[in-house]
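Appendix B: complex inputs.
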Amino acid sequence: MNEPKLLLKADDLSKRYEDGVLALDHLNLGVREGEVYCLLGANGAGKTTTINLFLNFIPPTTGTCFINGIDVTKNPLEAKKYVSFVSENVMLYGNFTARQNLDFFAKLGGKSNLTRDDYYRVMRRVSLQEKAFEQRVKTFSKGMRQKLGISIAIIKNAPAILLDEPTSGLDPKAAAEFQDILAELKDEGKAILMSTHDIFRAKDIGSRVGIMKEGRLVMERTREELQTEDLVKIYIDYMKSEPLSA
Amino acid sequence: MLKTIARKETLETILSYRFPLFTLICLLLIPLGLFVNQADYGKRLRDYQEQTRLADEAAKSLSIQDVMAGTVALKGFRRPSPLSVFTQGFESTFPAYYEFTQDGFTAGESSGGSDSILAAQGKVDFVFLVQMVVSLIALLFASDMISGEKEAGTLRAMLSNPLPRDALLAGKAGGGFLALWIPFLLSFLVGLAVLLFAGFPLFGGDAAARIAMVFLVSSVFVLTYYVIGLAVSAATAKARTSLVAILILWTAFQLIIPKMSDMAARLVHPVRTETEVSLQKSLLVNALAMEQARELGREYDRIFANAPESANEENSPERKRWDPIRDGIQQRYRERKSRELGAIDETFAQEKRRQTNLALNLSLISPSAAFARLVSDVCGTGELERSRYAGAVRSHQNALDAELFSKVKRTVMLHEGGGTSVGFTAMPVDASKLPKFSIASATLAEAFKANGRSLVSLILWLIVPFAFAYAKFLKYDVR
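Resulting structure:
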């Protein structure tokens, strides 16, 4: 059987900001199709920096990010064709309706021939209420915005998805619905890299879980390994341990 | 991709609260300003027509004795420019007429005699509205184009897609400006309809072409400010910082640079007042008249010393000697007076030109001054019209000298014994054939040719900020 394709790869990735802070220290990780990789870590551990590097929002100090085998720094526009991004606070145009937002971002993602029915179908899939389809987004709750954000990722139909703390601030029902959608996307073969603080959800959905501390990936466990280990205890132990730089 | 961004930008602006507000301001102020200025122009035109009618009637009944006595001054009136409806420019500072006499020309009262409060605060015409209101709104619209999207997080969402940054910037600039330009165009068209209704000669001569140019240049000017706003937005991380920066820039462009240019020019090249120059000319004329009278008296006494009665005999030998000597002296003094008065006028004009040129060139640092200068020349109310007016006045004086004033000779003699005698000679003059005062207004092409530097200033203010915005945005931290 063929090994699933490696769609997201960080190769010896480091980032030192202009103020001297080392945000990421020689990170190596890979996410294959049909896999959800959950990055756990405290604030400032380097999770968001990793995602920013994958999206070429900042240049790496050393190392390389690959999306679908394409070097993100050398060919960012080509690489971005194969990735979708959902942030913690999905930022949309408040004066546009849900459909107008979806239409705009779909076009940016290269989907220019979609119909109103296509948009409605995707919004139904993420369980967005029907009446919200033509409502201005500024009236939406955070959960609704998050659903619309994942609709944008779905409609782009990119093989890789980057999620930056997507369930942060969601109520339990909305978070559970979001998790169901992720499970579906995983089953469809998407490679998902998700940064999160939510240890329980990471354990539930993650094919692999990595813990980051001070810019380093200090631990990585597979779903199978976590069946016999207590992720919460591992996480807390790492957080309590001595600083790495000490 | 460019089209998608541009469409989004246009739609987003249209759906924002700012758009109906801006549309309302434009729809209210632009047609109203044009209507009020059309009414004002109509009044000034009626004044001009009445004054020229009276002057023509006076000219018809002009007798050579009136000219001899120097009691009648011929007047040349300037017809107000119809396009002053769009910008008053310098028109209110132009003399409404000039008076022409044997001793030269003098300026009449200025044409801007208004007791309205607007006279002190500047007329609210189309150019004023574009300069002060539309430009500020353009800056405000553009100020959060980049920094605002960064703060909202939508910039990250957009750039997580295969979207080139140059396309994003160009799309945002094009789409955003379109949303600004549509209400501007609409208000201008409504304003033109109001003008037509008020009887403005929209289709007379090249008025339509000039009005189209006024709108085109105004659109470029608004785009200039929009691009400056975009550059500021691309150089700042926060919309609030952009707002402060654009307000400082706007104040500098609209108020500080034009005023400081004028002040600097006055300091570097001071110019005497009109009164001082007029006094200098009067003193010269009187001194020359006195000198001429003495010389004539001396020659007269020498020739007629032994036969005073022969002065009245046209064919006497003394008279035959006297006439060419008198004519020669008068001709010499006429030429000298013309030369020396011309030199005073020329020196004064040079002083003014130096000051004006320095002020104008310094003010061109501001796109606003460049715009106002160009449009006022297109409308025939600018610096070009001022120089055309001055040229027409000089030509008319020369024509009157040749056709009228040279035909009337007043001979004043101061005799050595202290006596004074006055004599007149006059050739017939047909008052109906006297030259009419007219100003050859600059064509549209001439207006643009004279404003090369203004055009360069506007184009530079369009290109440089966009290039700056582009360079900044390519490295813009979108996080």
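Chain A has a mean pLDDT of 87.
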